[in-house]
Write a structure and sequence with these properties.
about 525 residues; 6 strands; alpha+beta
């Protein structure tokens, strides 16, 4: 009869634990309402047709291939593989995943094996013997004896109010934020590689333009010298010609310096030492493309941009920590116990008579903690409000960035058309000035001005072309790049597993060496 009552009591206790274990303090996370435009209205009207923006589809996962440049693609892939900032971000993701395991460990019983040996001698002058079941309480003054212990220690906190579960939920959200931070680092890296690459190609074309103009100016100078020797031109024209040749020639060393600096920058981005990477000169016009821009809709930006996703996951973690803080106000139930063998005689240590068992629940009810729990809850709520405002501000800034870049690309495309006309007109003016000078109708100063105008116009055209390509790279980055859930996640896992295996190899070598 008593056994049946005991079974019913245990069953009722289990049901209560299951019921109470389902209680979770705090509200589940809900995405906040934000004001989202229906479309990218900035590209409507005017000459938006010069920049084809497709809102019915999203960029591909490997969006940099839209520039149709195999050399750029190889550099990007090498950077994603070897860049140290990406590897550090991947390691932070591993750290976050380990933190999730640690945060959820409290949901399970904690078991430890405790084994010990003690040699005890009781004082002969003690007045009161030890109590609470201590072995010394049964020994006389001056007694000496041994204690052998081999116990299994149990501790389990029943998560009645969801404190541990909310903590694990916050850790999971933080890890997802770290994963998005990794993707943000990758996006920034791709953008930096693209900007540096197009800058190098711009400098290659600037060098080519300057060298061609220098050749033309040297030929014109030789004509002036010949005419001066024949008495048909003044020494002033010769000196002016020499000055413009020297001015143009002085541009070449600085252009080479800038190219070397950008090449060093790419070398570091791809994880190589500066000076070890080689890129053969290629003018910018040989790598220029005008890809269609698959922008998608503004609402999709919330799911694509890693900075928005990262802040939202941080907001989710802050929401979970409110529930974690609220659970601190309620009682906590822990089950502790020990079981094993204990003896003062080694020969009797492993016998059944040496068994020792202690188990029982304990309840802790917070009554007065000096306002600690209230302050903890207020802190959690304040942090949630901070993250909420950061989330909304990040979305607004993201919309602004995309809109600004769409306007910039459209403006630069139109600017290129005008500058192309400027280059053609200045080249025609230069040819006409040379003809008029040879006919003796103008002095050489007019030729010098025409040549300077051509060089400046060609330089500005190349600069604008490079700026347009860089703006396209920035726009793909602002749109969140490509987002293939399966492909992107698979690639990230492959890279992260490679980093993990390499790190393990390094740690093993250090341990062996130590």
């Amino acid at each position: 009869m008593r056994s049946e009552e005991g079974i019913r009591s245990v069953a009722m206790l289990n049901l209560c634990l299951v019921f109470l274990g389902g209680c979770v303090m705090g509200e589940d996370y809900q995405r906040p309402e934000v004001d989202i435009p229906e479309s990218w209205a900035v590209v409507a009207g005017g000459k938006a047709e010069m920049v084809p923006v497709e809102t019915d589809r999203l960029p591909e996962a490997e969006w940099w291939r839209a520039f149709q440049n195999e050399e750029l693609t190889r550099l990007v892939e090498r950077a994603l593989e070897q860049n140290h900032d990406v590897r550090a971000a991947a390691a932070r993701v591993f750290e976050g995943r380990a933190a999730v395991v640690a945060a959820g460990a409290g949901l399970y019983p904690q078991l430890n094996v405790v084994s010990s040996y003690s040699r005890i001698r009781r004082s002969e002058t003690i007045l009161v013997g030890p109590t609470s079941g201590a072995p010394q309480g049964f020994a006389g003054p001056g007694a000496e004896f041994d204690i052998w212990n081999a116990l299994l220690d149990l501790h389990w906190e029943v998560d009645l109010w969801g404190r541990i579960r909310r903590g694990r939920e916050a850790a999971e959200a933080d890890t997802r934020a770290l994963d998005d931070d990794l993707r943000a680092v990758q996006l920034a890296l791709i953008g930096d590689v693209g900007e540096a690459y197009f800058r190098i190609r711009e400098l290659d074309e600037q060098l080519e333009i300057t060298a061609q103009n220098l050749t033309i100016q040297q030929e014109a100078l030789s004509i002036i010298v010949s005419k001066s020797q024949a008495g048909l031109s003044s020494d002033l024209d010769v000196r002016r010609g020499e000055a413009i040749v020297a001015e143009t020639a002085s541009r070449l060393p600085d252009l080479r310096r800038l190219r070397a600096a950008e090449l060093h920058r790419i070398s570091v981005l791809v994880g190589a030492n500066p000076g070890t990477l080689r890129l053969e000169p290629r003018p910018l016009r040989s790598v220029v493309t005008q890809p269609a821009i698959p922008a998608g809709l503004p609402a999709q930006l919330l799911e694509r941009r890693p900075d928005i996703r990262r802040v939202e996951h941080q907001l989710e973690a802050a929401n979970a920590r409110i529930g974690e803080a609220r659970a601190q106000f309620f009682p906590s139930l822990s089950i502790t116990g020990q079981g094993g063998i204990q003896s003062s005689d080694f020969a009797e240590w492993f016998t059944s008579s040496s068994r020792a068992t202690t188990i029982g629940p304990s309840v802790t009810l917070p009554i007065f903690l000096g306002g600690t729990n209230v302050a903890r809850l207020d802190t959690a709520r304040a942090r949630y409000e901070q993250m909420l405002e950061d989330y909304r501000q990040t979305i607004l800034e993201s919309f602004q960035e995309v809109a600004d870049l769409l306007v910039a690309i459209r403006a630069r495309t139109e600017q290129l058309d005008r500058q192309r006309e400027e280059v053609q007109a200045s080249e025609a003016a230069e040819r006409l000035a040379i003809v008029r000078y040879r006919q003796g109708l103008v002095d050489f100063l007019e030729v010098i001005d025409a040549q300077r105008t051509v060089l400046d116009a060609e330089s500005r055209f190349v600069e604008t072309e490079r700026a347009r390509l860089v703006d396209m790279v920035k726009l793909f980055k602002a749109l969140g790049g490509g987002w293939d859930d399966r492909g992107a996640e698979s690639n990230r896992r492959e890279r992260m597993e490679k980093v993990r295996s390499e790190k393990r190899g390094t740690w093993n070598k250090k341990q062996v060496g130590g």
